[in-house]
Specification:
Blueprint (H helix, E strand, L loop, with lengths): L1 H11 L8 H21 L21 E5 L5 E3 L2 E3 L4 H11 L3 E5 L5 H13 L5 E4 L6
Parallel strand pairs: 1-4, 4-5
Antiparallel strand pairs: 1-2, 2-3
Length: 136
């Protein structure tokens, strides 16, 4: 009888070993996450920073390209046609001056995107965006 009681106590006693399978699963998931996150963390975005001493070209007043809510273009306050924009931008790129783009908040994004593509094709690297205030 004593053996039967001892056998039942041994069967119901807690297991003294730790199951490490879940720990290994968690470690493998963390390893995969780290492997996937390393390329994202080391991604570099090349940015041209201005030199410490401004040159004469940078002291030129910036030109302002504005887009109103109907999509019309304005160069320093004067209305211009779409065909004239590449010529103005190439002259600006040669002078090295800064271009400020001001867009009405009600303007269509497609129009803004198209104008920005023309600016990029012209090789303008000194570009700034003016805040969203309605054009008068």
């Amino acid at each position: 009888m004593a053996r039967v009681v001892r056998a039942r106590i041994a069967e119901s006693a807690p297991i003294g070993a730790i199951n490490i399978t879940p720990l290994i699963d968690v470690m493998l998931v963390l390893l995969v996450v780290i492997i996937l996150a390393i390329p994202i963390a080391t991604h570099k975005l090349p940015i041209e920073l201005p030199p410490p001493n401004p040159s004469a070209a940078e002291q030129l007043p910036p030109s302002v390209l504005a887009i109103d809510r109907q999509g019309a273009l304005y160069w320093n306050g004067s209305a211009i046609a779409d065909a004239v924009l590449p010529q103005k931008l190439s002259a600006l790129q040669q002078s090295g001056a800064v271009l400020h783009v001001q867009t009405d908040p009600e303007a269509r994004y497609e129009r803004f995107d198209g104008v920005l593509a023309v600016v990029k094709r012209a090789g303008i690297t000194k570009l700034g965006f003016v805040g969203n205030k309605p054009l008068d």
